[in-house]
Every structure is written in structure tokens, then in C-alpha cells.
Hints:
CATH architecture: 3-Layer(aba) Sandwich
Mean pLDDT: 93
Order of helices and strands: EHEHEHEHEHH
Strand order of the largest sheet: 1-2-3
Number of strands: 5
Number of helices: 6
Structural class: alpha/beta
Radius of gyration: 16 Å
Number of domains: 1
CATH superfamily: HUPs
Low-confidence stretches: none
Distance between the termini: 49 Å
Strand content: 15-25%
Amino acid sequence: MTQRAAVYPGSFDPITLGHVDLVRRGLSLFDEIVVAVAINSAKHTLFSLDERVELIRRTFADEPRVRVTGFEGLLVDYLQQNGIGTLLRGLRAISDFDYEFQISQMNRALCPEVDTVFLMTGSQYFYLSSSVIKEVARFGGDVSAWVPEPVQAALAGKFGN
């Protein structure tokens, strides 16, 4: 039987429970999910690539079907180098769909073998973003309802609260 794998790419700065929910739900569709943490030179991240990868690994320590790696460059190149033809992406709102649709069409233009599977974000996470989490944490707000425990501790360490 052929193993079905998907790549879930993103900056994950930091990973949220919305991301975690998407990965866990994706495991019902795929045998393995590779969380591919992007190096994006246009973004200034709070956490380094190594920190983001480690936080995600700790978050999914109980799930052997989740693999975490970093990558830089075109996502389609990463997919081809790793022999994976499916992307997993989450949608929160119509605005996400517009952006994700454009990206999925560009990916198919660059590599026609690539397919994108979209999952709707759980309703309790529609409003959630890594940017909002960082802002709340920066000012000492409690983010425990929206991020995994390793991220809570890491945010507290970054912001000293």
C-alpha cells in the first residue's frame, strides 16, 4: 500500500492550537504529515527556525506520523525533492481562500503534479493567528487557550512574563 503524505507549510511563529487542530484532523486523511517550517526573509520572526521546529516537534511528540522540517525556497521544489505531491492548507475566512487559491494555482503552474487540500479551521479558531497570539503575550495576556504548552512557556521566556 502506498503511503499518502501531505506537507503542511507555514512560518508557524508560533504554532497555535488552530494549526495543531488542522494537523490532527489531516491525519485522518493522510498517513503522514510533514510540517514544513518556512524561512521567509521578508518576515521578521519572534522565534528562530530552530526554535519553531523544536516547539512543533515537542507539540507533536505523541504523534509519530508527524514529521517537522525547515525549508527555504520554493515550496514546489521542496515537494519535488521530498517526493510529496500534496499540500495541506487551512482556511479561516473568505480572505484566506482568495490568497490560498492564488498560491495553489501558482504552485500547479510551477509543478502540475501538486495538489492542495483545504480544510476549514475549527470554528473555535477562526479568529486566531500567530500575530494576535504574539501581541496578547507581549502585553502579558493569557494565551493558554490558544497555544500548546511548549509555546506558552517559550512566549513567557521571550516576553519575560
